[in-house]
Specification:
5-stranded antiparallel β-sheet, 9 strands, about 25% helix, single chain, alpha+beta
């Protein structure tokens, strides 16, 4: 199974982000018509807390058990404030939405989830955690440049969503794109 842990956003905010991504998409298509970009649908928008990757089926029960108990963190608000791209210079590989409120809480959440996953043999992520919501993946830049594309991108804030749980997802890949299947939802609880 291919697994990841994420927090979900509410449907109204997802629609607003798709609207903003639509404006960005029109700009991308005008500036680089040969670019191949895959845009994320509203029902797939989420903030990845921790990507686990491919695991053998016999390891899944231990992962589910490690994430079963409520996390000792208070629910919090997450405000999506800006659009960006990786990398900042040259052709982009991905467009994303970032947060202005909830960064500290997201980092604490990632740390708590990673600690639980370590208890069942899932090693730490070697990259620093940078909470973002992927809006699009650039398959072929076709002359697209990050800075030029973002200069006229829509500006936020785009909205706020309440984070009160994490979800362990299975990602099922297909030629039509991934399908995210919830495996387990774990609430956040202060104290």
């Amino acid at each position: 199974m291919r697994l990841f842990v994420a927090v979900e956003i509410d449907a109204a905010l997802a629609r607003e982000l798709v609207r903003a991504a639509g404006e960005l998409r029109r700009r991308v298509e005008a500036r680089a018509p040969r670019a191949r970009v895959t845009w994320v649908a509203a029902d797939r928008l989420h903030f990845t807390v921790r990507f686990i990757g491919e695991v053998d089926d016999d390891r899944v029960p231990a992962i589910v058990a490690a994430l079963a108990a409520p996390l000792p963190l208070a629910p919090f608000d997450l405000t999506i404030a800006d659009l960006g791209a990786f990398p900042l210079k040259g052709p982009p590989r991905a467009f994303w939405a970032g947060i202005s409120q909830g960064k500290t809480e997201m980092s604490s959440l990632e740390h708590a989830v990673s600690a639980r996953l370590a208890s069942c043999g899932i090693g730490a992520d070697l990259r620093a955690y940078s909470p973002h919501l992927t809006l699009a993946r650039v398959r072929e830049a076709g002359g697209l440049r990050t800075r030029e594309t973002l200069d006229a991108a829509p500006h936020g804030p785009f909205g706020t969503t309440r984070i009160d749980a994490i979800t362990l997802f299975e990602s099922r890949l297909s030629p039509k794109g991934p399908t995210y299947v919830p495996v387990q939802r774990t609430p956040l609880r202060a104290g």
